[in-house]
Specification:
4-stranded parallel beta sheet, 4-stranded mixed beta sheet, alpha/beta, about 150 residues
């Protein structure tokens, strides 16, 4: 029986990055070729492609996704997408996110102060956080490829 693995759509070659490109990862695709991959992209769904960039900002109310162009808090649509995605796909066993993404990074997203000073670079993105809350085995793509590809 195939595992059902949620994978950042940009890693599968979908043109959904903020700049209208993709992050197709051939090594990842080769490792997952026998699994069922379920693509996702909360940012493309909520804001379209291309779109302004966002960063994770530490605020009093917690870590928030803030537009670098407008300063708007973009967290709510990302979190809503994540909840709906996992509610729709309760059979998902693994989550593979795009490294450093404020939405999909599992343990590599950067967090900044409100003054845009880097606080740390090992945060969990907003969608990846939902996967982890649900107990889904989660990886950054680069870590997954390095770990699984060496076996």
């Amino acid at each position: 029986m195939k595992n059902k693995i949620a994978v950042s759509a940009c890693l599968l070659g979908k043109v959904c990055r903020y700049d209208g490109l993709d992050n197709k990862n051939e090594a990842l695709l080769a490792l997952l070729n026998t699994e069922e991959m379920i693509p996702f992209c909360p940012e493309d769904d909520a804001f379209g492609t291309p779109r302004p960039t966002m960063d994770l900002i530490a605020k009093e109310e917690g870590i928030r996704a803030i537009s670098n162009e407008t300063g708007e808090d973009l967290s709510a649509p990302i979190k809503a997408y994540a909840k709906a995605f996992f509610d729709t796909h309760p059979e998902i066993t693994h989550f593979i996110g795009k490294d450093r993404s404020p939405s999909c990074g599992v343990c590599s997203a950067k967090v900044y102060s409100q003054e845009k000073v880097l606080l740390h670079d090992n945060e969990t993105g907003l969608m990846a956080k939902e996967a982890r809350l649900r107990g889904i085995c989660s990886f950054d793509a680069e870590v997954f490829v390095a770990t699984e590809g060496s076996q």
